[in-house]
Design a protein that fits this description.
Elements (H helix, E strand, L loop, with lengths): L1 H16 L8 H9 L4 H12 L4 H5 L2 H13 L30 H20 L7 H12 L3 H30 L1 H5 L5 H18 L9 H11 L3 H15 L1 H18 L3 H22 L12 H29 L6 H19 L16 H17 L42 E3 L5 E3 L2 H11 L3 E6 L4 H9 L7 H7 L1 E6 L13 E3 L5 E3 L3 H13 L6 E5 L11 E2 H4 L2 H14 L1
Parallel strand pairs: 3-4
Antiparallel strand pairs: 1-2, 3-7, 5-6, 7-8
Helix pairs in contact: 2-5, 6-13, 6-14, 7-8, 7-14, 8-12, 8-14, 10-13, 10-15, 11-12, 13-14, 15-16, 16-17
Length: about 575
């Protein structure tokens, strides 16, 4: 544990120093690698070292490369890219989530932070927290001898709130570990547990019951807060966190669920964003007490905020249930069923916002406010937008949430909706994205490619790969792309998270370049092994064009990071077809 803390501290020092210098000495590099204690530590250390200006010098050092190779063997991470190239930079591929590239990680963490920050502001507008703002700020200003002291105490109070929630995120990360967190997105058990948790949180927000901390905890924190000084201020913040748990608990729980799927330090980042937004008003209103006159008065609108958040959590819960269904390929929550559930949830939400129904703890609604009317109208518009999806509309605005088009009761569309598809495809194919007939067996696809004289489009994908769905919805169906994929190539989609067991004779032990051994048990294991050994990559989506003998004819792979716009993907397709 201490080693991990030292590693985090060293990372912070290096990151701060990077503001002034982009070089890392060999001694510091070795010390950094010696502090590595988890796979995530190794990935972070590799990224940090390879982003330095003197990366060429580091990858030329035999001692550093030796440490890297030892760690790559220990944590089963492919570090074959730690070799010098013409640019003097290194290109190491360190697998994080099977469906996320390392280049997307910072963007994902920023997304987690901003969503958490927004959730923190939403928590402020709940009946457990909002009334505490004027009460707490008034306490600091009255108990402090000077205005400066009041401001200082309020700032310390805000920092204490941040520390409490960051500690919560740290505990979650420490208990589960980065590797376990990274596996959650495709694990059916985890996704079903998350579904149940979010449904419980949603029902709580709607007023059926309240999730409270034990009263003994609250009383003990409250008694400590009376002592004064820094310790007293900290326990005041802890008392706020415990008392407001019935409102903030479901939001924090949902954030931790989402952040846990991202893995690594995402829970910590999520808690920082949430607590920063929660603590900010206390410090600002303490500095400028006159602003409190502009705050709206507490009332029934605070409970409305809770109920709306409950509906949103209920909708999000079914995304996790969908993940589990896709992983198991159970076809219990197909696209039409998922959209029907969402349409129902948001329709009821719109009726609630427009005053047609009430829930427990709601105040009597005499008239609608402008804001509530606009939000209710927007929700109805969203419901109307989703309805064509039942007949095959792609729904690009929410493509990352519902199951893909082909995972439905009517994958070819019905009632005039969807893209037309042939009644059946070649033997051994299944209906895939954009109603394209695709193989799921590489050898059969290669044989058919030779038979018809067309190149082979190899698609490494995953059932729960969000970026794969975005590419299939936003790029595959575009003019210039759909024609090539449907008519000019043979498509084989290899799901690296397919859980079907391999035949006993194919369940073999393989050895990777770094010496790591693994027994291939599932179809997904087989395709992941193929991607790693042949293409030195682990991220999906990953597209390669091959000839009928299995030779690569494309100028490098196509990935989500570099080819997520249709024009760029079209150019890649055209260059590959010319080479064929």
């Amino acid at each position: 544990m201490m080693k991990s803390k030292l590693f985090v501290a060293l990372i912070a020092i290096f990151s701060f120093g990077a503001l002034f210098s982009q070089e890392i000495s060999k001694e510091d590099s070795k010390e950094l690698l010696e502090l590595v204690s988890t796979q995530k530590d190794f990935e972070d250390a590799s990224s940090l070292l390879l982003s330095s200006d003197n990366a060429k010098e580091l990858i030329a050092d035999k001692d550093i490369v030796g440490l890297v190779n030892e760690l790559s063997d220990k944590y089963k991470v492919d570090a074959s890219g730690w070799t010098q190239n013409t640019s003097g930079k290194a290109d190491v591929k360190t697998p994080l989530d099977p469906q996320e590239s390392t280049d997307e990680l910072p963007k994902s963490l920023w997304t987690i932070f901003f969503w958490s920050f927004a959730a923190g502001f939403a928590a402020l507008l709940t009946p457990c927290v909002f009334p505490m703002i004027p009460m707490t700020v008034s306490f600091f200003t009255k108990q402090s001898k000077t205005k400066a002291q009041g401001i200082r105490n309020a700032i310390i109070y805000g920092i204490s709130i941040i520390v409490i929630y960051i500690l919560l995120g740290t505990v979650i990360t420490a208990i589960f570990g980065a590797e376990v967190l990274n596996e959650m997105s495709t694990n059916p058990t985890f996704n079903i547990v998350f579904f149940i948790l979010l449904v419980v949180f949603a029902i709580s927000f709607m007023g059926a019951f309240e999730i409270r901390m034990p009263s003994s905890w609250v009383n003990k924190a409250d008694s400590k807060a009376d002592k004064g000084g820094l310790i007293g201020i900290f326990f005041m913040a802890l008392a706020l966190a415990l008392v407001s748990f019935s409102c903030t608990g479901p939001i924090v729980g949902s954030l931790l669920v989402i952040a846990s799927e991202e893995g690594g330090i995402a829970p910590l980042v999520g808690m920082f964003g949430f607590s920063f937004a929660l603590a900010l008003p206390f410090a600002l209103f303490a500095a400028f007490p006159g602003w409190m006159n502009s705050l709206p008065k507490s009332g029934g609108w605070l409970n409305t905020v809770k109920v709306v958040l409950g509906f949103l959590e209920l909708a999000l819960a079914f995304k996790f249930l969908s993940n589990a269904d896709l992983s198991l390929q159970a076809h219990l929550l197909e696209r039409e069923v998922f959209l029907s559930i969402w349409i129902g949830i948001f329709l009821v939400l719109s009726l609630y916002l427009l005053g047609f129904l009430t829930l427990p703890h709601d105040s009597k609604l005499e008239r609608l406010s402008v804001g509530r009317t606009l939000l209710g109208t927007t929700t109805i518009i969203f419901v109307i937008y989703m309805i064509p999806g039942l007949w095959g509309a792609p729904l690009k605005l929410i493509s990352a949430f519902p199951p893909p088009l082909q995972y439905s009761e009517a994958p070819t569309g019905f009632g005039g909706g969807g893209t037309a598809a042939a009644s059946h495809g070649p033997e051994g194919t299944h209906l895939g994205p954009q109603n394209i007939w695709v193989f799921h067996d590489y050898d059969k696809a290669l044989a058919y490619s030779k038979e018809v004289g067309k190149p082979l489009f190899v698609d490494f994908t995953g059932h729960n790969c969000v970026n794969c769905r975005k590419m299939e919805q936003s790029v595959w169906g575009e003019p210039g792309v759909i024609e090539v994929l449907r008519d000019q190539v043979v498509v084989v989609s290899l799901h690296v998270d397919e859980r079907t067991d391999l035949p006993k004779e194919e369940q073999i032990e393989v050895t990777y370049n770094n010496g790591r051994k693994k027994t291939l048990k599932t179809v997904g294991d087989k395709w992941m092994h193929k991607q790693i050994t042949e293409f030195k990559a682990t991220a999906q989506p990953y597209y390669v064009m091959q000839d009928s003998d299995g030779n690569v004819i494309s100028s490098g792979p196509a990935t989500y990071k570099d080819h997520k716009s249709a024009p760029v993907f079209i150019k890649w397709l055209e260059n590959s077809m010319k080479k064929y």
